[in-house]
Structure to design on (403 residues):
């Protein structure tokens, strides 16, 4: 029996999508966690290699495999609980679609991942890609109450809980956030929400990178905690010069107070954007990252952003780059080579700064790996976890590079 016949017998013809990937690999779309488990259990028995896909808008669908497992039919939202500030969503639902459903209930998921709006929620969690809002609301893992995932041998694992008070015990949720699918296919996420901001204001200032870095330092020294504080390169901002963008979100009184503090700290140099201008600014920056073939993030200390920007400028260029000086996070996009990425990662490892390759063509991903061991003992730990959750190595994921 062929692979296609086996899949039809297991899941029905509806699970096989008509459009195959660019390499002609069959694309299978299970419609439930149990169906995902059945498929992966069979993949282990048959020795099939499986590529995990969300909506196919972020990671290139080019890893060699026997079949591609897409979560796009896992697109339901079982629960939105505004009173508990929590929601449960299947992993295949589009991020923008979920965001609109939450807004209709007066709640907000304070994550702004780079890429196109059609990205699946599971993709955002698996790659742990948040954007400028990390400044005020933390990384992706801080927005997760729990996840349900399916291991490489077909086991369904539940971690965490649906509401905050239920989160206890050994936390596999954080393992899945940023695991790039190496430890399981995320099928369901329990999310921590916030009340929808009454006011959402963005203010910007153009100038040289050095000048804007000093302004960002002045904002931090004033004790202000904006929702986002982002230093954006001219190309990414679609401006003539570097841009410092500050986003304030919350109640009218809170935003008014923060805006007054911002004026005092910066001498009133920042200009507020109209709501449609602000939406366009943040959207273009997020989409600009996705338009480049390679994207990575690095995470240092808040006072190291300027040094890291200098390093990136020297080794890979700084045309498409955004930095969150308040948390020391930087995201780079563009074109580069395997050798340059390896050299940059080695340099950063000497500073104990991680480089996470967020997206790239498969030849680059497989050679460099999504993340490398920048501290002693990390490599063996990751290898042990992979043996636990994917004992037959069914998942085609470039966690660590080939070097």
């Amino acid at each position: 029996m062929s692979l296609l016949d086996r899949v039809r017998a297991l899941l029905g013809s509806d699970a096989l999508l008509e459009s195959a990937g660019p390499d002609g690999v069959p694309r299978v779309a299970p419609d439930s966690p149990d169906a995902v488990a059945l498929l992966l259990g069979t993949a282990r028995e048959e020795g099939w290699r499986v590529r995990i896909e969300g909506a196919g808008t972020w990671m290139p669908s080019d890893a060699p495999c026997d079949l591609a497992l897409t979560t796009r039919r896992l697109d339901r939202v079982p629960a939105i609980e505004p009173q508990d500030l929590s929601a449960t969503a299947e992993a295949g639902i589009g991020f923008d679609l979920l965001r609109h459903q939450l807004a209709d209930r007066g709640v907000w998921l304070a994550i702004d991942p780079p890429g196109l709006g059609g990205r699946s929620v599971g993709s955002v969690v698996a790659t742990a890609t948040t954007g400028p809002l990390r400044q005020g609301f933390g990384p992706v893992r801080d927005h997760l109450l729990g996840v349900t995932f399916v291991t490489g041998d077909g086991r369904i694992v539940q971690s965490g809980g649906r509401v905050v008070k239920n989160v206890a015990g050994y936390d596999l949720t954080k393992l899945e956030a940023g695991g790039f699918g190496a430890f399981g296919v995320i099928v369901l996420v329990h999310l921590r929400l916030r009340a929808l901001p009454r006011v959402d204001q963005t203010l910007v200032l153009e100038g040289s990178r050095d000048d804007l870095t000093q302004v960002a330092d002045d904002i931090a020294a004033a004790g202000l905690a904006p929702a986002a504080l982002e230093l954006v390169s001219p190309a990414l901002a679609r401006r003539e010069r570097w841009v410092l963008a500050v986003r304030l979100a919350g109640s009218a009184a809170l935003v008014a107070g923060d805006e007054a503090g911002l004026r005092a700290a910066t001498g009133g140099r920042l200009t507020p954007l109209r709501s449609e201008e602000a939406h366009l600014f943040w959207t273009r920056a997020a989409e600009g990252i996705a338009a480049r073939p390679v994207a990575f993030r690095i995470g240092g200390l808040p006072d190291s952003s300027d040094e890291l920007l200098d390093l990136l400028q020297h080794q890979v260029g700084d045309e498409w780059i955004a930095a969150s000086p308040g948390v020391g996070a930087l995201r780079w996009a563009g074109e580069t080579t395997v050798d340059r990425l390896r050299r940059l990662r080695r340099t950063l490892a000497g500073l104990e700064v991680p480089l996470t390759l967020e997206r790239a063509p498969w030849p680059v991903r497989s050679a460099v790996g999504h993340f490398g061991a920048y501290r002693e003992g990390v490599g063996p730990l990751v290898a042990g976890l992979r043996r636990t959750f994917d004992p037959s190595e069914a998942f085609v994921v470039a966690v660590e590079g080939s070097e």
Residues 163-170 have pLDDT under 50 and may be disordered. The first helix runs from residue 3 to 11.
